Amino acid sequence: MRIAIVGAGPAGLYLAILTKKRFPETQITVYERNRPDDTFGFGVVFSDATLDIFERYDPESYARITEEFAYWDDIAIHVKGEVHRIGGNGFCGCARSTLLTILQDRARGLGVEMVFQTEADPEEFDDHDLVVVADGINSAYRQRHAEHFGTTVDLRPNRFAWMGSTKPLDAFTFLFRETEWGPFIAHAYQYERGRSTWVFETDPDTFARAGLGLCSEAESAARMKAIFADVLGEHEILTNRSIWRQFPMIRNARWVRGNRVLLGDAKATAHFSIGSGTKLAMEDAIALYEALVAEAEVPSALTRFERGRREEVEKIQHAADVSLVWFEHVARYLDFEPVQFAFGAMTRAKAITYDNLRLRAPDFVDRMDRVFAEGVRAAGFDVSLDTPAAPMFQPFRLREMVLPNRVAMAPMCLYSAQEGVPGDFHLVHYGARAIGGPGLMFTEMTCVSRDARITPGCTGLWNDAQEAAWTRIVDFVHANAATKFCLQLGHAGRKGATKLMWEGMDRPLPEGGWEVMSASPLPYFPDSTVPREMTRTDMEAVVADFVAATERAERAGFDMLELHCAHGYLLASFLSPLTNHRTDAYGGTVQNRLRFPLDVFSAMRAAWPAHKPMSVRVSATDWAEGGLTPEESVAIASAFRDAGVDLVDVSTGQTVRASRPLYGRMFQTPFAERIRNEAGTATMCVGNITTPDQINTILAAGRADIVALGRPHLADPGFTLRAAAWYGAGDIHCPPQYAPGKDQIFRNAVRDRADLEDLKMRGRPKTRAELRLPAVPEAS
After folding, report:
1. Which sign, positive or negative, has the C-alpha torsion 542, 615, 335, 159?
2. Where does the record locate the signal sequence feature (predicted)?
3. Among the three residues 296, 329, 362, which one is the final residue of a domain in this structure?
4. Mean pLDDT calculated for residue range 56-74
5. Any catalytic annotation for residue 415?
6. Same structural domain for residues 437 and 299?
7. Average pLDDT in the 719-746 region?
8. 315 and 462 fall within a common domain
9. Are residue 361 and residue 325 in the same domain, yes or no?
10. What's the confidence (pLDDT) of residue 768?
11. Measured between alpha carbons, how far is residue 680 from residues 173, 634, 638 in Å?
């Protein structure tokens, strides 16, 4: 084979090394536009896990790399005059120039030909079997064929500059500084003796106010040294093409074109805040090498590479996306207590959570628990500060309603009612889950009129039979549980007259349907019933239906009321520009689109007792082009807050069929976080949250005030009780009939948790930083 590699960065060189070592007869030539000793940037970072991979694939280069690396175990977060150190992380750094020299030497020793100071065009190698395009973030070949590759470039708003310093550091260090212009961030780590990398970052408004766009490289360095003088001291700031720029998040729908394949930054980028750029590139090289070993033909190998590697790349990019967004909006969190700020920084990308932080840094999590409890005590609760409960088991107040914990059972349609009347299935469903211990439980969307239903199986609250059935369920919950019970009221709008979920979700009924209406006459599916555009008379009738249901809800004894303005149902259809094409006072601007939903809410609020809370469920994004913007979602939440909403239940999507959600763990939580910290209102988050650990992580980081789970409660009515046993929250309510079971699970949990934590600690490999520590002499 003949292989041409365009670009002598870590990805191209490592691929050349692995391939030449395995297939010594292969002719491999690496082309690089720069000189071999040209140096751009300062240090690179790898985790211990990544070094383990390097050791397995090429022990020779691994040995040289580890001789040169600086090791550290801690992450240090400097904010508001405090420093929080969290150990057990296992990082190491090396000068980029050193890494390239090691890889060049190794490749040369294996017989790889390298040609420097040559602008090689990947189009020129038609006589080669494989052409690897590893020419970096600004790949000319990728740009030339952007349509084929399906390239998207998301140019992020923050400005950053790579610099260096002579300042020694003993931890991966994040520094946050508030200045007269706004916040500045430094990401810093040592990569060799007497040298450390410093990546400075700030938001575009702060960048403009500080005048950095007009500064020379030297002037920018001087400004950064002044801002971070308390840590840098007399140590110099070093520059090397240290220009301020924006990070491009690059994705490609396809990585292969004929026998040309993109590799490294040419293919995909990951933000520097998770330190994975070089890791991503070198692991790309490993994956392509493995594909070449596994397949006899190049086309098959390239197909295998793309199919096998894409999921891991997208996972890393997703983590990087979440991380970079946290840094872009760091101003939201600067009012937090320093320990909570540090906890949020550590858990920003979801890889690190409350429980694994407790294993690595128990004192840090103890401080976090105490600070959280102090906030609860400041809200008027007599909670322990000496042995604080985990965040999920701290109480929360909405008006005069007090929740015993912050776990909620999310609203989930059961489609099991007869003419809107909830039956025995509903009694058992809600009764069992209330006994299981969540602080708050929501009904499914309950419809305010017969024609407001989604399906024939939806519950309602428009007649006496329904009111009596709901009263029976509410009375059972109040008699046997401490759980507060919230009724969610809604109107299906254009998504009405559809089949039961298991018969075809959102698909129109073939017969027996009813007339539907919406903000605009737009069907959900092309073959769905075309809704009637609502008139003012229709609006008045709907408001009256919601008020009548509100009055029935009070008579039934519900503790709380929620208005459903999400998921493309009637009120959501007014809020989204994708479903509201009106030209009257109810369409156009977000203020106009809010008008009717606010009319409904205000009428309900007036009919609902003042001491009882109300919430609103919103879709914070439509996940579709032209839909709600983040700024509009904050404006919507703020308007409901001003109208008397006590809690915003933040969901997303389901507005239009063209939506493309970015699913993942806790994928909707960032929307709840933004609304909470920008609109200044309590929020509840929901969406692929499955464990108590995730709940505690969200709450401790200040991302939401209540956490709702749906599917986990379907599978396990005792979810919250089991979590209480795990975290030792012994005061959770349990009816006397079940007390022996509670006692047993609490006893077992103490042993089970100790065993699991011991197993995890024993199984955790020592980081390289720990292994390099001098041995402690045994006591004689």
Report:
1. negative
2. none
3. 329
4. 85
5. no
6. no
7. 94
8. no
9. no
10. 58
11. 30, 9, 8
Which of 643, 659, 481, 477 has the alpha carbon at shortest distance from 568?
659
CB 702 within 8 A of CB 685: no
Burial grade of 216 (CB within 10 A; 0-12, 13-18, 19 or more): exposed
**Residue 513 forms part of a structural domain:** yes
Confidence of residue 778 (pLDDT cuts 50, 70, 90): very low
In the beta sheet, which residues pair with residue 684? 649, 706
- Distance CA(638)–CA(631), nearest Å, equals 11
Q: What are the structure tokens assigned to 377, written together? A: 């005590």
Task: Name the band, by pLDDT with cuts 50, 70 and 90, for residue 121.
Answer: very high
Name the burial class of residue 643, with classes exposed (0-12), middle (13-18) and buried (19+) by CB atoms within 10 angstroms of its CB. Answer: middle
569, 586, 663, 727: which is the annotated catalytic residue? 569
500 φψ region: left (φ > 0), alpha (ψ -120 to 50), beta (else): beta
Domain coverage including residue 210: 2-329
Structurally, how many domains does the chain consist of? 2
> Which of these, 446, 444, 445, 438, lies nearest to 409 by C-alpha position?
438
**Cα atoms found within 13 Å of the Cα of residue 382, Cβ hemisphere only:** 0
Question: Across the chain, which distance is largest between two alpha carbons, in Å?
Answer: 91
Q: Could you tell me if 153 and 293 lie in one domain? A: yes
Angle between helices 10-22 and 96-110 (to 10 degrees): 20
Nearest Cα neighbor of 708 from 653, 648, 749 is 648
| pLDDT of res. 775 | 41
Cα-Cα-Cα-Cα torsion 669, 673, 674, 676, nearest 10 degrees, comes to 130
Q: Residue 734 in 3-state DSSP?
A: coil
Neighbours of 752 (CB within 10 A): 13
Decide if 562 contacts 651 (C-beta within 8 A).
no
Separation between Cα atoms, residue 404 and residue 291, nearest integer Å: 54
Nearest of 390, 347, 356 to residue 666 by alpha carbon:
347
Residues 315 and 428 both lie in one domain: no
Question: Does residue 308 sit in the same domain as residue 358?
Answer: no
- φ/ψ of 709, rounded to 5, equals -125, 140
Indicate whether 771 belongs to any domain: no
Is 742 part of any domain?
Answer: no
- Cα distance between residue 412 and residue 609, in whole Å: 25
Residue with tokens 């019970």: 485
d(CA 703, CA 712): 20
E strand or H helix that includes residue 593: helix 590-607
451, part of any domain: yes
